[in-house]
Amino acid sequence: EMVPKKLREVTKGFDQAGWRIPLPGTFGNEISRVLGGGVVPGSLVLVGGDPGVGKSTLMLQLASIVSEGSEDHGSSPVVYVSGEESIEQIANRADRMSIKSKDLYLYSSTDIEDILDKIQPLSPKALVVDSIQTVYLSAFAGSAGNQVQGQGMHICLVKFC
Asked: What are phi and psi of 105, to 5 degrees?
């Protein structure tokens, strides 16, 4: 039978720092601070802002940091998916930023089923979708980014993570 429990009973003996994805370096520390202590596996982080402010650049840099891991955790696959740019355009941005992560994968698609099908064999530590309004589920009517598609996308991403 479920009953309310005190917070300290729930967290007793639980190392919360150990279940966050480490983000080393100055940039990683700043992102961790903004996210309240780091990236929690299974979480969904939505980054918004005006066009041209650097959201894609920020997310590519974050994807690189997560894929490189830390001293305690080795590198892991991370997939950066774009519905707006080709993988060559993303690679060009990565080159300008001197990103050389060996486990950073790039993919260009707007079909969420296709994306999930292609990334499953990689078993990625993280998935970055740029931009979420460009992807769609074929099972739902309407174009990418509309209210019905948005509701379906939320459910799909929560199940996936």
From this structure: -105, 140
- Sheet holding 78-82: strands in order across? 104-108, 78-82, 126-130
Q: Where are the domains of the chain?
A: 44-136+153-160
Under DSSP, is residue 156 helix (H, G, I), strand (E, B) or coil?
A: helix
pLDDT digits (tens, 9 = 90+) for 14-49: 776 677 888 889 999 999 999 888 888 888 888 888
Residue 81 to residues 11, 40, 61, 69, Cα–Cα distance (Å): 35, 20, 13, 19
Query: Which CATH number describes the domain made up of 44-136+153-160?
Result: 3.40.50
> Across-strand partners of 78?
104, 126
Q: What is the mean pLDDT of residues 105-112?
A: 95
Q: How far is CA 119 from CA 27, 69, 80, 152, in A?
A: 26, 19, 10, 19
Residue 143 CA to residue 154 CA, distance in Å, equals 15
pTM: 0.79
User: How far, in Å, CA of 91 to CA of 128, rounded?
Assistant: 15
CB 105 within 8 A of CB 118: no
66 burial class (0-12, 13-18, 19+ CB within 10 angstroms)? Answer: buried
